[in-house]
Specification:
It is a single chain. The chain is an alpha+beta fold. The protein is 42% helix and 14% strand. It contains ten helices and twelve strands. Helix 1 (2-32) crosses helix 3 (81-92), helix 4 (118-137) packs across helix 6 (159-165) and helix 7 crosses helix 8 (250-266). The termini are far apart. Residues 205-225 have low confidence and may be disordered. Residues 340-357 have a biased composition (Low complexity). InterPro entries: X-Tfes_XVIPCD.
Amino acid sequence: MPVETLLASNRQDEAKAQIAGWNALVDKVRQSNPAVDLTAMRSHGNGRVHDFIEANPSNPRQAQARPGITFNSDGSLPMTPQNVAAQGTYYFDKRPQGTQGIPANQTTGIGYHGDSDYTNYYGAGAVSRAIAIDNAYAHAVGNVAPQMHLDMQRLRFSEPLLEHNGITLPQGNTANPHPYWNTSTTPPTPGLFQHTQVSHQHISPTLVFTPQLGGVISPSEPSPPDNALLEKVRHGVNELDRQAGKSWDDNSERLSASLMLMAVEKGFKAEDDLKFGFNTPTDKLGGGEVLHMWRADHVSPDPAANRVHMTTQEALSVPAEQRFTQVEAAQQVKAEEIQRSQQQEVTQTQSTPGRSL
């Protein structure tokens, strides 16, 4: 994937710079100690030397090269592919500062907040570039909108750390988070990248689950008039979240609002036996790319009238409050249609001649 390719280039550059730093340090120490060796370098006091050498297990007072590293006889380090790869592992691949179970000297703390590793530090730029390309060139195929897929676990990406380092969304779209799919989970988990180039803050609004009301309530977002239908929709999304092993978040509310819009436009009611689910993988679609809702009680004899769907990317692309505005507009249209239909029935009844008895 392009993001992975760009990260590999960053990894190699940093590894080479690290080797150059070692050689510069060796030259500096040699000026005062011409007989400098690895043991002397280990006692130098620079923490970076531990990326290159370690204590000899047989004689802890002596130093030796870490596995995969081969020094020249004078203690300098050649820029061989093997040495570059080893430094990629020992230096670039260090976990973020504060990672549980890893000594502090084997972690990295860089970036805007000093809490990032190199992977997420450079990953922010790689993801920002991918988003820009996606917005500029991606197009629908077979009426299916393009979707960004990231294997967050394999890439070792963390959404909070990426946003801490600064995600840049294209100009004109900074107010609209960019949706993506985390394919390291089964089914894939939807996510959103916010524009954080200025704030450097991870934003993930959470909602309060209230069991006594049987659903999820957002104190900051107005609910459409049909609260019973909305609660049923939120119940369904909450179950989808549970199956995916995730808690309720802003994405959950966006899905709920989009499902609510589909339900209103389709004429679904709170008393209907509504079911919700994502598509299973096919030759053309990955699992979880389409959000489905259907009436299990088959209220209409027309099968198409009992089912509705939307691509998950589209369902996540609009903030919940904006989608609820669309819901209210759709409800108004439905109400006007019902009123016109009732008026037509009254008019037809009044215009029908009475039958004499």
